[in-house]
Specification:
209 residues; alpha/beta; Rossmann fold; 6-stranded parallel β-sheet; 7 helices
Length: 209
């Protein structure tokens, strides 16, 4: 990931991916098509600043599961920029590094609709807003609070710009926490994750009690 043709619109999709599932992949594809992205980077975080890490699988496994899920899809790739950095994984630091690495690219940060209402609490949020375009993929009929005129806890002009970046994607009510619970209870996760991810979880005995 050292070179990239210019000009390019680069999507950045961060998260714990604990584990990555079909919902993540569908969201990334929706973002790619709706916002005409050239590529999407899946960026697994090392230490999520706003989540408990008790059930967080080791980074090496979470990255490997992403690589297994997107193998052969040239639109997607993994990026270990947060795994290589010490301390909590803040988006503002990641975007700053990616802008330095790809100065000619337009950086597009991809959010799920559950993350947008929390954006105002993120570290150096106004610096982040100034460095990239933020787009949000919402489930049909489940647009985030603030879409109808709220301010998301941010000053102008950012609420209007964020609302302009909201699109409805495909519905995929799948959560990593439910997948972990099902594994711990000995239930099937078939059709919730890519078969290669299911195989990886089994081979490495992840998320069991």
């Amino acid at each position: 990931m050292d070179t990239m043709p210019s000009p390019v619109r680069l999507g950045v999709f961060g998260g714990t991916f604990n584990p990555v599932h079909w919902g993540h992949l569908v969201l990334a594809q929706d973002a790619m098509e709706l916002f005409e992205l050239n590529r999407v980077l899946f960026v697994p975080c090392a230490r999520p600043p706003h989540k408990h890490t008790a059930e967080l699988a080791p980074a090496v496994h979470r990255q490997a599961m992403i690589e297994a899920a997107i193998e052969g899809d040239l639109r997607f790739e993994t990026c270990d920029i947060e795994l290589q950095r010490q301390g909590p994984s803040y988006s503002v630091d990641t975007i700053r590094e990616l802008r330095a690495k790809f100065p000619e690219a337009e950086i597009v940060l991809i959010l799920g609709s559950d993350s947008l209402p929390e954006l105002s609490a993120w570290k150096d949020v106004y610096a982040l807003l100034g460095m990239c375009r933020i787009v949000t993929i919402a489930r049909p009929g489940a647009l985030p609070a603030g879409e109808q005129g709220g301010d998301f806890g941010l000053r102008e002009p950012w609420p209007e710009r964020l609302r302009a970046g909201i699109r409805a994607g495909h519905s995929a009510s799948i959560s990593s926490s439910d997948i972990r619970w099902r594994i711990a209870e000995g239930m099937s996760i078939r059709y919730l994750v890519h078969p290669a991810v299911e195989m990886y979880i089994t081979e490495h005995s992840l998320y069991r009690k």
